Fold:
Amino acid sequence: MTENSTAGSQSVTDQLTAGEDIAFMREALTMAQRAAAQGEVPVGAIIVKNGQVVGQGFNQPVGSHDPSAHAEICALRDAGQTLQNYRLPGCTLYVTIEPCTMCLGAIIHARVARLVFGAVEPRYGAVSSGQRLLENGVYNHELAVSSGILAEEAAGLMKQFFRQRRASPNDQGPAPGAGAELQ
Ligand SMILES: [Zn+2]
Structure:
């Protein structure tokens, strides 16, 4: 029912846009690095319409005192302002890590046409891991999904972040940005 494809098994349509997907996912990874630089879990998102970036965001719930400030939500808000519309038809959302239930819900509410994510999130992922929300038959909005784009880079950023955070609970260490405040 869903168009959920796994890494290495993209559909023909996906292959046509594969180069574009990689380029935009690189921008999402740049956003993820901005999150890491601020001591936030490194997840980044970009929203594209007609080949143009109309929204971008990075994970920042700690610094912004906002439990909903995940990368996808920040990017959806940004795109809504850019397009002056609470719905984002025809848009593709690129995010470095598989969305959680909150973000996938918001993506559906926004009527995003296509979701492209990098690495799976085995615990909180709501697309192909954990809860598979798109498969429950509740939503009548068709969301095309591609995954595995630059997954190693996306997962690598996460691993590096958590390794550094574990390694430096209270010494000066190599923790990025305001990481010391996290512990
Ligand atoms: Zn989320």
Summary: The longest strand covers residues 52-58. The helical segments are 12-16, 18-37, 71-83, 101-109, 151-167.
